[in-house]
Amino acid sequence: MEKKRVKDYMTYDVVTVNVHETARDVIESIQKTRHDGFPVINDQKKVLGYISARDLLAVHPETPVERIMSRHLIVADPEMSVNDAARVIFRSGIQKLPVVDEEDRLIGIISNADVIRSQIEHVSPEKVFNFMDTLRRLHNIDPSLERGYVAIDELLPTQPKIYEDELEGRMYEIKKGLAEPLIVVRRPGRFILVDGHHRAIAAKRLGHKTLDAYIINVTEKIELGMERTAQAQNLKTLDDIKVMDYARHPLVAVTHRLVRQS
């Protein structure tokens, strides 16, 4: 059940501005491409800043780019999850994040449009079948699948924390009837929540008693790794899941850099 990564949705063909260019060059690039901003790079393709149409207001056309570009950078790592990139984009108000390698060289850019595209491309049935194949290979069993409703209070969580900002989005989806089904494993006497922890908590906050789900039935007497994980993390009900504020989210793949002036 692979997470969506920035590298899967970012644009690799990026229009850039060289740090040695002028405001006039940027204006010409805006007119030519219809873009409203560009990463600023040096001759080694290292990202030094970002320049937007707003930075050009009341600026002489011959002003060097390095004097007017923004040096406060928020960048993304290609292995970062799209959800984390979305948090940064929508919380900061920045529409585009340059994507850099370990040496700050530009390799792509991810925009709010890319994030929206990633969220539209939901493939729950594919995730379900992939997970069932994993169960078959790991445990030599033959699980069956059905679609139905599960009681929220009977779910055994397997994820210790969720994030408040994403929870708000899931509540909106549930209110509008847009939420994806959960993915759960039914074992004798319990429903193990595989995918949909934010949705489950959101529904509980909204007063819902049940949720639509893909139900994977496992009748064999085995202990799944997810059950051991839940036990190790002392997870018994949804109330044991910690709801984390955005400010505490470990966006380790995003760096805020103040590039020193040379």
Give the total of beta strands.
Answer: 14
Q: What's the multimeric state?
A: single chain
Percentage of residues in DSSP E strands: 25-35%
Global structural class: alpha/beta
Proportion in helices: 25-40%
Query: What is the rounded distance between the termini?
Result: 45 Å
Helical element count?
A: 9
Reading side by side through the largest sheet, how are the strands ordered? 7-12-10-11-8
Which term fits the overall shape? Answer: elongated
Mean pLDDT across the residues is: 86
Q: Could you spell the SSE succession in H and E letters?
A: HEHEEHEHEEHHEEEHEEHEHEE
What ranges have pLDDT less than 50 throughout 5 or more consecutive residues? 247-262
Q: Could you give a short account of the major beta sheet?
A: 5 strands, mixed
Radius of gyration: 23 Å
Describe the structure.
- The protein has 9 helices and 14 strands.
- It has helices at residues 6-9, 23-33, 65-68, 82-92, 112-120, 124-139, 164-175, 197-205, 225-232, and strands at residues 17-18, 37-41, 47-52, 72-75, 96-100, 106-111, 144-151, 155-156, 161-163, 182-187, 190-195, 210-217, 242-244, 255-258.
- Helix content is 32%, strand content 26%.
- Helix 7 (164-175) crosses helix 8.
- It has a 5-stranded mixed sheet with strand order 7-12-10-11-8, with helices on both faces. The chain has a 3-stranded mixed sheet with strand order 1-2-3.
- A hairpin with a 5-residue loop joins strand 2 and strand 3 (47-52).
- The protein has 262 residues and is α/β, with parallel strands linked by helices.
